[in-house]
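Morning!

This is the sequence you dropped in the shared folder:
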Amino acid sequence: MSGPHAPVLLAEVIEALSPGPGDVVIDATFGAGGYTRAILATGAEVIALDRDPTVQAHADAVANDFPGQFQLVRTAFSGLSEAFADSGKARLDGAVFDIGVSSMQLDQAERGFSFMRDGPLDMRMSGEGESAADIVNTWDHGPLAHILKLYGEERQSGRIATAILRRRASEPFTRTLDLAEVVEKALGGRRGAPTHPATRTFQALRIAVNDELGELTAGLEAAEATLSPGGRLAVVTFHSLEDRIVKAFLTERSGNSPGGSRHAPVAVETRKPSFTLQFKGAREAGEAELAANPRARSARLRAAVRTEAPAWRAAA
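The structure's back. Tokens below.
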């Protein structure tokens, strides 16, 4: 797989999923179809999920190349279980998630994900709901500063929120470069920083607009509930916020987290691991892949196998 939208850690993901003829795998982040094509090439069937309407052309091409093996469902992660149920398949043998915004989306200036190109301040993956412009133009100082700190890990979140509110009082924000310039000025310019001062702000807005962390949690829980015993889960993340969620989920579900105390006992069935980790920690890209695809530098792969135990249930 080569080209501007090459999927990262592809060989490692395929090894973790171990797909083959007769298997059914969900690609929860279809995008340009990189993982899907590699899975289909093994003879497996793929149910692809994506809430981005612009991926349809890629889906049509995949369907043409692999007739009868592929279907695309327009849904977010939280719709995984329903998408599988609607497919009529008897068992789910694997699921893969590639978390975050794709390079394909970043390259489309009209989507408003990046401040590297001027475009409308949108950032909606589905094209529906509240946009980034809606947030910066209508949210109060407190909630705005909160998401900048929480999702962007921006230490100067209060200062940036103040600058945004001051500027929008005279003119609302509509363009990406306009917002990037206001944030840059609020932080006193670049001063030799390796990344643009607005990077964290744009990340925070994108995550908030698309409820990315909430959808990630919902998707992991849906995969747990839907994967058949022996089914494999592979998750690729690019940011510490995402990776922490995946790590905590798999640590708990594999029975490696502390159990209940004598003051708050946990029901026996909740202690049964619903996943077995395929390997300790996370796998990262090798030197060859990093040289060919710099985007892989921050990528982390975690993988697990579904056990015979029922889906994890929180103690009452």
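Headline: Residues 20 and 42 are 5 Å apart (CA to CA).

More detail when I'm at my desk.
O.
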